[in-house]
Design goal:
Layout lengths: L3 E10 L4 E10 L3 E6 L6 H9 L7 E9 L2 E2 L5 H6 L2 E4 L11 H10 L7 H11 L17 H15 L3 E5 L7 H18 L2 E6 L2 H4 L5 E6 L2 E5 L4 H7 L9
Parallel strand pairs: 3-8, 3-9, 6-7, 7-8
Antiparallel strand pairs: 1-2, 1-4, 4-5, 9-10
Helix pairs in contact: 3-5, 4-5, 5-6
This protein binds adenosine-5'-diphosphate and magnesium ion.
């Protein structure tokens, strides 16, 4: 059974048309679902309807979101986090003023249980050995984009979610770094049986990880099926945003 179920979700901000229009998708544990779409397609609004980070006012959300069979659509973000949902946003994914270990300490506080913390720390440092080589006292805001993404993914491991939502993990990173991030995400998905939902602009970054691919255009989500899905989407222009 799918762990995350999004059913007929719409998100409408007070000014403008619906940012998400009747979207439905599901993600099982140990599975990666990718949503591809251009700027403004509604990707961020969609992931935020799952983790709950939408403005209190000036937004209308309808439809159902459930995790592990329980409806969570009316819970605030903190309560959703306690249901095992972690979210790595596009920007502001780490605490810029705090150093690496202080950042990781905050992610550790988000755990639902202290049990297993040592194992998760070990996995985080095993996935990203470079983490231990970063200057200990330096505020994370001074790290490179790739290092910040690495810290955010490590933080996610240490917060021990069942569901991980990642908003544009390839944004602004060199292709080699993107590969490293994707293989890290693939590894933690498999080892911790995460339900992994990635939204991105670029099919090339995510194609090796995706079990299912959706495209999103003007708030409308569409499951892409058939042979050679990724090659077809590349031809259809879903690779334009590739960093060069
Ligand atoms: N807080 C907001 N208030 C009003 N409109 C918004 C807000 N956030 C996003 N939008 C609009 O909703 C649409 C979808 O945006 P977004 O979900 O950020 O798409 P994407 O992540 O695919 O770029 C866009 O037209 C955007 O301008
Ligand atoms: Mg976005």
């Amino acid at each position: 059974m799918s762990h995350v179920e999004v059913t007929d979700v719409s998100v409408r901000y007070s000014r403008g048309a619906a940012a998400v229009h009747g979207a439905s998708l599901s993600v099982a544990r140990g599975e990666c679902v990718v949503v591809l779409g251009a700027n403004g397609a509604g990707k961020t609004s969609l992931v935020r309807s799952i983790c709950g980070f939408l403005p209190h006012e000036n937004v209308q959300v309808s439809g159902q979101v459930s995790v592990g069979g329980t409806s969570i659509g009316r819970l605030d973000p903190a309560r959703r986090a306690r249901r095992g949902i972690a979210y790595i946003p596009e920007r502001d994914k780490i605490f810029r003023e705090l150093n690496v270990s202080e950042n990781l300490e905050i992610f550790a506080q988000r755990r639902r249980s202290k049990a297993g913390l040592a194992d998760d720390r070990e996995l985080a440092f095993d996935v990203f050995p470079a983490l231990t080589k970063l200057p200990a006292g330096r505020p994370a805001g001074f790290l490179s984009g790739g290092e910040q993404q690495m810290l955010a993914i490590s933080g996610a491991i240490i917060s021990s979610p069942d569901v991980l939502l990642v908003d544009e993990p390839s944004l602004g990173l060199a292709p080699i770094i993107v590969l490293e991030m994707m293989s890290a995400l693939g590894r933690i998905m498999a080892e911790r049986e995460l339900a992994l939902l990635l939204v991105d602009q670029n099919v090339r970054s995510t194609q090796h990880l995706a079990h299912h691919v959706y495209t999103m255009d003007s708030g409308v989500l569409r499951l892409e099926t058939g042979p050679n899905v990724h090659e077809r989407l590349i031809r259809e222009g879903y690779s334009k945003a590739v960093a060069s």
